[in-house]
Amino acid sequence: MSSQSKTLSAPLAVPRSRRSFINPAWQRRLKGLALPLAIVIVLEIIVRVGWLPSYQMPAPSEIAVTLTDLAEGTLWKHIAASLLRVLLGFAIGAGLALVFAAWVGLSREAEAYLEPTFAALRAIPSLAWVPLLLLWLGIDETSKIVLIAIGAFFPVYVNVVAAIRNIDRKLVEVGRIYGFSRLQLVRRILLPAALPGLFTGLRSGMSLAWMFLVAAELIAATKGLGYLLSDGRETSRPDIVLAAIIVLALLGKLSDGLLAIVERRSLAWRDTFTGQGSQD
Fold first, then answer.
1. Per-residue pLDDT at 10 exceeds 60
2. pLDDT tens-place string over residues 73-88
């Protein structure tokens, strides 16, 4: 090898001192923990110093004690009740959204009939549905699941319709040239092309399902994380309120993470831009 080629190839080598022994995936996870840990440390200091009254904002260490006490008691019952409601409501809402989104996305006739009504309904706040659902369905589980399904429906519907309508028309024309039937066109062209938008809608719908859960459980519930929030407010226990909020955040992050894993595996065939690293 000539000296010139050695000179050109030298900058491509990674210096031994800059090599990391930590897996890049774990590096990202550790970076993601930096901000929450910083917030916890700052809050602990502020409350202990006395800049914030503990009856309004308990120290994170006190919230940790409350979480431990709840975990030894009724916390798992509340988590199970909320998780079941979210999963049922999300499955119903997302399933209906996929059906209507495919119909509207593939048919301009369906869009003319349905889109104006759906556009008006998705502007209604979650709490506005509560009195109507209580009048129609009562205070049992049905009204809560329906409210969560409403919350999950619209993000999935909007994103899937947009994903279908943003598919390159040339792909559809190629499918027609090859004589694809409507089912083959959907399965081999439209569905793979719309998958990124579908997963965006599913993740957004899951997030809203957790938000609508709280609205559902704040009214006429005897168990669930929303009930735990209400109970902490009525008993003037901000530590219970914050503990319930933390559990909701963790469950929301866990459910979103599971959908993100399914998304990565389903879309592994894509070659997309993933952002620039710190060394780029």
1. no
2. 889 999 999 999 999 9
CATH of the domain at 125: 1.10.3720.10
In a domain, 15, yes or no: no
Is the torsion defined by CA of 185, 189, 195, 197 positive or negative?
A: negative
CA distances for 177 relative to 8, 79, 80, 165, 186, angstroms? 49, 53, 52, 20, 15
> Could you tell me if residue 3 is inside a domain?
no
Q: Which two tokens stand for residue 9?
A: 């190839």
Q: Which domain holds residue 220?
A: 59-265
Closest CA relative to residue 188, chosen from 180, 197, 198, 199: 180
Question: How many angstroms separate the CA atoms of 74 and 82, rounded?
Answer: 13
Name the pTM for this structure. Answer: 0.83
Give me the DSSP letters along 67-131: HHHHHTTTHHHHHHHHHHHHHHHHHHHHHHHHHHHHHHHH-HHHHHHHHHHHHHHTTS-HHHHHH
Residue 124 in contact with residue 115, Cβ under 8 Å?
no
Domain membership flag for residue 7: no
Which token pair is 233? 């407010």
Number of domains composing the chain = 1
